[in-house]
Amino acid sequence: MENRIDRIKKQLHTSSYKLTPQREATVRVLLEHEEAHLSAEDVYLLVKEKSPEIGLATVYRTLELLTELKIVDKINFGDGVSRYDLRKEGADHFHHHLVCIECGAVDEIQEDLLEDVEAIVERDWNFKIKDHRLTFHGICYRCQDKENKKE
Ligand SMILES: [Zn+2]
Ligand SMILES: [Zn+2]
Ligand SMILES: [Zn+2]
Question: I want to staple 44 with a disulfide (CB 3.0 to 4.6 A). Which of 59, 105, 116, 134 is the partner?
Answer without folding.
Answer: 59
